[in-house]
Amino acid sequence: VCLTCCSRDVMVKIDQICHKNSVKFFTGDVFGYHGYMFADLGEHEFVEEKTKVAKVSPGVEDGPDTKKAKLDSSETTMVKKRVVFCQLKEALAVDWSGEKAKAALKRTTPDYFLLQ
């Protein structure tokens, strides 16, 4: 479900319905130069391709680069990952007075507060 130009109450209500029924939910809007996008994908599983790091043998002298790990782009491995997304209601209900939230405040875009 994709929503735009909706009130906060409507977005929260539809997200709760989607989350309950395992339906992916996206919402967003733009206000001049500022905008936001929120995604509640519920439990999302995906596969990530990781490049294997080639180990440099200690007997081989290769100059100053011998201490750096080298990436071997020909060898990759697939890693299955799982992410659990929060609901919109939870994302909007953050208590900014706590110590943990104060640390997150530095990484939070000011556009988050536009939505508030």
Keywords:
two-stranded antiparallel ribbon, extended, 116 residues, alpha+beta, 38% strand, single chain
Describe this entry's structure for a reader.
- The strands form 2 sheets. The protein has a 3-stranded mixed β-sheet with strand order 1-2-3. It has a two-stranded antiparallel ribbon with strand order 4-5.
- The model has no long low-confidence stretch (mean pLDDT 83).
- It is extended and about 50 Å long.
- It has 116 residues and is α+β, with helices and mostly antiparallel strands.
- It has a domain of 71 residues.
Proportion in β-strands:
35-45%
Count the DSSP helices.
4
Helix content: 25-40%
Low-confidence stretches: none
Distance between the termini: 22 Å
Q: Which outline best applies?
A: extended
Number of strands: 5
Provide the structure class.
Answer: alpha+beta
Radius of gyration: 22 Å
How would you characterize the largest beta sheet? 3 strands, mixed
**Average pLDDT over all residues:** 83
Q: What are the secondary-structure elements, in order, as H or E?
A: EHEEEEHHH
Strand order of the largest sheet: 1-2-3
Any chance you could write out the topology, listing elements then pairs?
Elements: E1 2-4, H1 8-20, E2 25-31, E3 34-40, E4 43-54, E5 70-84, H2 88-92, H3 99-105, H4 111-115
Parallel strand pairs: 1-2
Antiparallel strand pairs: 2-3, 4-5
Tell me briefly what this model is.
The protein is 26% helix and 38% strand. By secondary structure, the protein is of the alpha+beta class.
